[in-house]
Each structure stands twice: as structure tokens, then as C-alpha cells.
Amino acid sequence: MKLNSDKGVFVIGDIHGMYDEFEEMLSYWNRSKEQLVLIGDLMDRGYDSRQVLEKVWFLEKEYQAVVIRGNHESMLLNFLRSPYNFFNHYVINGGMTTLSQLLTISEEEIKRSDSRRYARLIKQRYPKLESWLRSLPYYVEYGNFIIVHAGIDLSLNDWRDTSDHDFMWLRDRFHHAENTTGKQIIFGHTPTMVLNQNFNNSKVWRYDRKWGIDGGLVFGGQLHGLSLSPNAVRDIHSVKIMEGR
Q1: Consecutive H or E run containing 236
Q2: In the chain, what is the greatest distance between 2 CA atoms, to the nearest angstrom?
Q3: Given the DSSP bridges, would you call strands 139-142 and 145-148 parallel, antiparallel or unpaired?
Q4: Model-level pTM?
Q5: By the 8 A CB rule, do 27 and 239 touch?
Q6: Chain segment 141-199, per-residue pLDDT in tens
Q7: What's the mean pLDDT when you consider all of the chain?
Q8: Beta bridge partners of 9
Q9: Torsion angle of the four alpha carbons 28, 101, 221, 152, in this order, in degrees rounded to the nearest 10
Q10: Cα–Cα distance between 162 and 180 in angstroms, integer?
Q11: Beta strands at 66-67 and 34-38: parallel, antiparallel or unpaired
């Protein structure tokens, strides 16, 4: 998917259900001059994934916001398709909070019942959710930028041949490979505290024309947003976790 280079772009990193911080980050976005791109992992682990999703759906409708498919969107989709097979995998990766918030019931109640029942209830309450998750692109191109959730396979002659799984899950093999694309790559997925090798350092990670922008907000770090022109990062915005969270 290619974005129009006539406008700027505003990219926001992994939100993970942290609604108030997401709202604060949106205050830096110039709606009239910038296309909004969300890098994936909208939900799971945080305190209000339902409200994040509803806000994102509003932004898609009113401002044509673009959402990239992250591994957490993929895990939710897998659960809805086959709850018996994917419930445990989704839950150990933070999905219990999202199921509880979408259905407004306790996590303990979900644990005690049949996962297939809750998948059916979510489909009934959010009938477009499954098809929406299936529609999300794995990456977008904008000017001199590739924007992707986790990374691309830099060993390939054409990075666009990266597998769907790798677009959403890559880590070290992408981080440490030479960037031969001729482009700048913006990605999330791996908290920058890990990339910076310092749990107290959640700043944007920059190396070899790669920009890591998952500031690990849900782990106590920051939410990052980048303002882009077709050829440059014009500004970096960061929001810290709000007091009391």
C-alpha cells in the first residue's frame, strides 16, 4: 500500500490499549496536513483496548487513518477464527484484557468458561471486527519510507517478498541486518528499552536508517509519534505513561 506523498504522515507506535496516552498523542497530529498511520498492536495488556479500537474506527471513517497489522491484531484474528486452537496463545500474550474489555465481563469469568462462547459473543457484538482485522495491510510505503509493524526480511532481493509472519513478528534478524533498501524503515513491535539495551531508556531507537518507535508504553515507557515529510523525519513526539497507571 502506497500513501500519497502530497501530504505529510504522522506515525504512532504500539498503543496496547493505553487510551488516555493515545488521545494525548493525537493532539500532536495535524489533521489537515498529515495522514495518520498506526503501526499496529492497538490492543492487549492495557486498560482500555475497547475504547482505543472505537477511537481508531472513528479516525478511519472521518480521517482515512491507516492501521498496519501487528502481531496482536493477528492473534485476535486467529482467536476469532479458531478459539479452541488459539485461546491459550492469545491469553499468554495479553489478550485476556481485551476479551474482558470488549465483553465488559471479568477475566475470571472468561477463564471459567468455554473460549468458543466468548468468540461467538465478540462476533455478535462487533460484527465487523473479524473482517476489519483481515483487511489490515502488512506495511505501507510513503516517499522514502517503509512503515511496518515488526520488520522486513533484509536477506531478500525484494523486501516486499517478506512473509506475512515476518512482517508482524521479526526481531533480531531484522534489527542487526544491513539496510540495503535505500529507504528508511519505521517499525514497532520490539520495545525500544530492549533495542537500547537499557530498561530506563525508552527513547526512539535509530540505527542504519531504521527507526524503532515502540516505546514500551504499556511496560512503563513512552508512546512515540513521528511527523514525516516524504524524505525526512520532521519531528519526534513522546508521551509518558500517565500518573496513576
Answers
A1: strand 232-240
A2: 52
A3: antiparallel
A4: 0.96
A5: no
A6: 999 999 999 999 999 999 999 999 999 999 999 999 999 999 999 999 999 999 999 99
A7: 96
A8: 35, 228
A9: -80
A10: 14
A11: parallel
